[in-house]
Amino acid sequence: MEGVKLTGALSAAEAASVFPPNERAERGPVAVIECVQQIPCNPCEKACPFGAIEVGPDITNLPRLDLDKCQGCGLCLSKCPGLAIFLVDASKSATEALVMFPYEYLPLPAADEIVDGVDRTGRFVTKARVVKVDTGAQREGTAIVTLAVPKQYMHDVRSMRLVAPGEVFLCRCCEVSETEVRQAVREGAKTVVAVKMRTRAGMGLCQGRTCRRLISRVIAEETGQSPADILPPTSRAPVRTLSLEALAGGDDNE
Amino acid sequence: MSNKAEVIVIGGGVIGTSVAYYAAKAGKRVVLLDRGDIAAGTSGACDGFIIMQSKNPGPHLDLAMQSAALYRTLAAELDYDIEYMPCGGMIVAESEKQAQLLQGLIAKQKQAGLQVELLPIAQARQSEPLLAADLWGAAYCANDAQVNPIRLAQGFAQAARRLGAQIRPGVEVQALLEENGRVCGVKTGQGELRADYVVNATGVWAPTLLSPFGIELPIKPRRGQILVTEPLPPMLNHVLLCACYLIAKYHPEELDPTDRQHRLGVGLAVEQTAHGSLLIGSTREFAGFDRKTTLAGIEAVAQHARRILPALAKVNIIRTFAGLRPHTPDGLPILGPVEGLPGLIMAAGHEGDGIALAPITGQKVAEYLK
Ligand SMILES: Cc1cc2nc3c(=O)[nH]c(=O)nc-3n(C[C@H](O)[C@H](O)[C@H](O)COP(=O)(O)OP(=O)(O)OC[C@H]3O[C@@H](n4cnc5c(N)ncnc54)[C@H](O)[C@@H]3O)c2cc1C
Ligand code: SF4
Ligand code: SF4
């Protein structure tokens, strides 16, 4: 069995049960209350100045969100002791959604920094850009971070991890960091081959099978192109590694 | 783009970037154009030998030795790690006959001031233990070295940029512009650009730009196929060539046409790169502009490598690639002004020596841009 009681994180089914419909997120910011345990707790109810959250007289009830009353102000995020409330907003761009969540770790990210967007269990989902880090007084010591993520991940990204510069290897075979790849793109490398020429990314054991897509994505991010438009590298034999002996074949001549 | 420069360099390989660097260093306003990217041509698909003892004594060896001298301080000068390693080189002789051929070359090289020593196999194996025990031996030269050609081109390009040169990848030159019998600029996909001098450093593609003027440059692509191994711990102490390489290069008449390795011009060239992969090459074939690798080609290279370095049999090959050497009939590059076309300077046709000759080529060509 999978679910919050066993893993400490919501299962996919539990999470899906509390998603606002996509149309609602397309209209503007809205809370996502991922509170699925019936525990005696109701600060969220009072936190909402618009009366959009209702727990009711039995305080072990799950909170219910009125999608029309919710204005997406985000005040409830800081009041939930379980850090179970998030905000999503798909209205700002055609491709990106904003995801807002409480973040209790230090150091805090900076605006415009690229971080790893992670899911409820801390697994990497996507690279994300930090839009805002709110540490204001009403945040009561818990910073609220807003990330921009590709829209398809707005239901998956629920926290983040800082990317130490130089430490994320896009190309693990050759230990080429994302920072190096970005640098290469800024110096003019606009294709996977060009990045490879500058950084060696893609020349290692996997021959680009793992890193090719990641590199295309970085180029796409840096240049504003779509990943589909980024030229793929040329592939040449052998596609799987072979020993020299195997390549040489049996006899020394025809 | 500003549409007047002093020097336009066409081609961002090791040669074009070197010319751009030395010209910018001499104070010229330089624009370098490449239709692809830095090192997108042959310079991104080759070995990195800076080998002296393969050069014919005479102008060829003289140029190479001047280039080798520039290499010693180049990384510091460019402030860029070009993975230069003064490791020394060996040319392996399989037989007595090959050893004699080397001996003849060595005598002339000594006169030109290059120290090369012919070592019997037992002695050669003391410093290069992976060599097969049943080879005849090897010629050793301490002045041979290696470099990473891609990083070399990047290093030249970035240093040129710091000196004010414009480096513009993605711009294809469609034609040379001529006015009153003088080359005065280039026509590109993004407009015209004028300059006092235009340098043609487009390697195997160099003839195309000259044919409209009725000039046929004798440069032909000669393909070389290379195998790349997984990264390995340090296992080679030198850059290694075999004497077949020299025979294929200088005495093709000695080749046996019934032998596939000979037919494909296989001459072994093995180096270990800074990050551990071995580059094992290569063939010398005329196959037009086809940059594909062929099964016959990589098989022949693998067989030859196994013959010379049996210990490599179990090593994994992760990739193969092919590059096009800008071949000329006399093996020498075409450098300098072109008779009947003032304003145009040639810097192409370095065949299998473009890496070794890149620094000196840039320096010499910059001298023509007065
Ligand atoms: C398999 C192999 C192994 C080799 N090993 C060695 C070695 O160990 N040591 C050594 O010294 N040499 C070696 N060489 C030779 C060496 O690689 C070449 O001599 C050298 O790279 C040539 O450099 P280049 O700058 O002249 O040409 P290139 O690197 O081909 O550069 C020419 C550039 O011009 C650009 N271009 C072409 N046409 C146009 C146009 N119309 N407009 C704009 N741009 C254009 C191309 O995109 C290209 O980037 C080897 C070659 C091969 C193939
Ligand atoms: S965001 Fe504001 S409106 Fe929406 S639920 Fe939280 S408090 Fe209520
Ligand atoms: S405050 Fe947080 S934990 Fe309590 S009910 Fe509301 S959402 Fe659940």
Can you give a write-up of this model?
The complex is a heterodimer of chains A (254) and B (370). Chain A starts with a helix and ends in a 6-residue tail after the last helix. Chain A has two domains: 13-161, no CATH class; 169-229, BFD-like [2Fe-2S]-binding domain (Arc Repressor Mutant, subunit A), CATH 1.10.10.1100. The longest helix of chain A has 13 residues, at 211-223. In chain A, the strands form three sheets. Chain A has a seven-stranded antiparallel β-sheet. Chain A has a two-stranded antiparallel sheet with strand order 2-3. In chain A, strands 10-11 form a two-stranded antiparallel sheet. Chain A has 254 residues and is an alpha+beta fold. In chain A, a hairpin with a 6-residue loop joins strand 4 (85-89) and strand 5. Chain A is built from nine helices and twelve strands. In chain A, helix 6 (178-186) packs across helix 7 and helix 6 crosses helix 8 (211-223). Chain B is of the alpha/beta class and 370 residues long. The longest helix of chain B has 16 residues, at 96-111. In chain B, the strands form three sheets. In chain B, strands 1, 2, 8, 9, 10, 11, 17 and 18 form an eight-stranded mixed β-sheet that branches. Chain B has eleven helices and 18 strands. Chain B has helices at 14-25, 59-71, 74-78, 96-111, 121-127, 149-162, 206-210, 243-250, 260-263, 295-308, 354-368; strands at residues 4-10, 30-34, 49-50, 89-93, 117-120, 137-141, 145-146, 166-169, 173-179, 182-188, 191-200, 220-229, 239-242, 269-272, 278-281, 316-327, 334-337, 344-348. Strand 12 (242-243) of chain A pairs antiparallel with strand 16 of chain B, so a sheet runs across the interface. The complex binds flavin-adenine dinucleotide and iron/sulfur cluster (2 copies). One iron/sulfur cluster (SF4) is lined by residues 31, 47-48, 50, 52-53, 65, 70-76 of chain A.
Write the layout of secondary structure elements.
The complex is a heterodimer of chains A (254) and B (370).
Chain A: H1 4-7, H2 12-18, H3 22-27, E1 30-33, H4 43-47, E2 53-54, E3 64-65, H5 75-79, E4 85-89, E5 96-103, E6 114-118, E7 124-134, E8 143-150, E9 159-161, E10 169-171, E11 176-177, H6 178-186, H7 192-199, H8 211-223, E12 242-243, H9 244-248
Antiparallel strand pairs in A: 1-4, 2-3, 4-5, 5-8, 6-7, 6-9, 7-8, 10-11
Helix pairs in contact in A: 6-7, 6-8
Chain B: E1 4-10, H1 14-25, E2 30-34, E3 49-50, H2 59-71, H3 74-78, E4 89-93, H4 96-111, E5 117-120, H5 121-127, E6 137-141, E7 145-146, H6 149-162, E8 166-169, E9 173-179, E10 182-188, E11 191-200, H7 206-210, E12 220-229, E13 239-242, H8 243-250, H9 260-263, E14 269-272, E15 278-281, H10 295-308, E16 316-327, E17 334-337, E18 344-348, H11 354-368
Parallel strand pairs in B: 1-2, 1-11, 2-8, 4-13, 11-18
Antiparallel strand pairs in B: 3-7, 4-6, 5-6, 9-10, 10-11, 12-15, 12-16, 13-14, 14-15, 17-18
Helix pairs in contact in B: 1-6, 1-11, 2-11
The structure holds flavin-adenine dinucleotide and iron/sulfur cluster (2 copies).
One iron/sulfur cluster binds next to helix 5 of chain A.
